[in-house]
Amino acid sequence: MDTPPSSGGAELVEVLGVYNADGGLRGEVSYIVGNMLGRAHCGLCDITHSPIRRKQDWDELVVRAQVPIRIVHRNETSPDETQAIKAISLPCVLGRRSDGGFDLLLSADQLDALDGSVEDFANALPQHIWAA
Q1: Sheet strand arrangement including 12-18
Q2: Whole-number Å distance between alpha carbons of 55 and 66
Q3: Is residue 15 one of the residues assigned to a domain?
Q4: CA distance 104 to 3
Q5: pTM
Q6: What's the rounded Cα separation, in Å, for the pair 102 and 106?
Q7: Where does the chain have alpha helices with state H?
């Protein structure tokens, strides 16, 4: 996937993933129970975590990225991030540009289509993100 066009030639300075779940103990428990009951789903969670813990493949991917990758829960976004995701279904992955704006890199449907694969996630992002 190529980097979406951005205004003024601004470069990608951060990859921001937003889970379709709240952070904190209550949010985590709520998501786990909801997921087990089939009422909660997050394609980004499937990519970053196994049923027990964060995936080692994910940790290795983040280390080799040339652009910082940050993942947050929906209740942990800053005001500008909250505004950027206002009209987007979660989960999603955004690219923060050097001009402060955001581009949608991966939608909820695209994340679901990756079926939990860390490798497919990496391949779906712009290739200049990864170290040679």
Answers
A1: 69-72, 12-18, 92-97, 102-106
A2: 20
A3: yes
A4: 9
A5: 0.84
A6: 12
A7: 24-36, 43-48, 56-64, 79-85, 108-113, 118-124
Dist. CA 33–CA 122, nearest whole Å: 29
Spacing of C-alpha 37 from chain mean position: 23
Contact at 8 Å (CB) between 20 and 121?
A: no
What sign results for the dihedral spanned by CA atoms 100, 105, 109, 112?
Answer: negative
| Residue 2 located in a structural domain | no
Q: How far is the C-alpha of 93 from the C-alpha of 54, rounded, in Å?
A: 18
The CATH number of whichever domain residue 23 belongs to comes to 3.40.30
Q: If the chain, 132 residues long, is cut into consecutive pieces of 10 residues, what is the mean pLDDT of each piece?
A: 49 95 71 64 90 92 95 95 94 96 96 96 90 60
